[in-house]
Amino acid sequence: MIKSFDQLELLLAEFSRVVSAMDEASFVNKPSPEKWSKMEILGHLCDSAANNHVRFMRILTTDEPITMDGYAQDDWVKRHGYQHYYHREELLLLWNQLNGLILNALRSATESDGAKRCVLTDGTSLTLDELFEDYIRHAEHHLGQIRDIRRE
């Protein structure tokens, strides 16, 4: 899991660099009414961090495999109003703070904690280590979308 901590820390720094350097018009542009803007993608990542923080904590604080509920991602983004009610600096700060909570909680994890299992709503079983690695892959995927100038 230590390698993953380094990956997330590098990812946070890269997000800050990329998002801060982007011009505002590109960041809030919606490619189409049904697609998220880069602002909304960052908001979605905040939702993901909040949900995954709870998941990680539930795994860390129990000895039994837990069942993970999903969440309606599009509805969360819409109801939070990321496109209309936030500035990118606010969302970037929130993203960094939520991931700070995740990193600090997971730094307390033991090797046996990393092997604890959870079951996703589709029946897939993952260890805490695998869930954290998936979380990082998910964020990297969306960083690629934020970088992609073709979305504009």
Explain this structure to me?
- With 152 residues, the chain is mainly alpha-helical.
- Helices cover 68% and strands 5% of the residues.
- The chain has a 3-stranded mixed sheet with strand order 1-2-3.
- Strand 2 (117-119) and strand 3 (125-127) form a beta hairpin.
- Helix 1 runs parallel beside helix 8 (128-147).
- The longest helix is centred in the first third of the chain and has 23 residues, at 38-60.
- The radius of gyration is 16 Å and the shape is globular.
- The termini are far apart.
Order of helices and strands, N to C?
A: HHHEHHHHEEH
- The fraction of residues in strands falls at 5-15%
Sequence stretches where pLDDT stays below 50 over 5 or more residues: none
Main beta sheet strand tally, sense and closure: 3 strands, mixed
- End-to-end separation in angstroms reads 36 Å
- Determine the number of helices (DSSP H or I, runs of at least 4 residues): 8
What shape does the CA trace take?
globular
List the strand order in the largest sheet.
1-2-3
SS content category: mainly alpha
Number of strands: 3
Rg from alpha-carbon coordinates: 16 Å
Percentage of helical residues?
55-70%
Instruction: Please state the average pLDDT score.
Output: 92
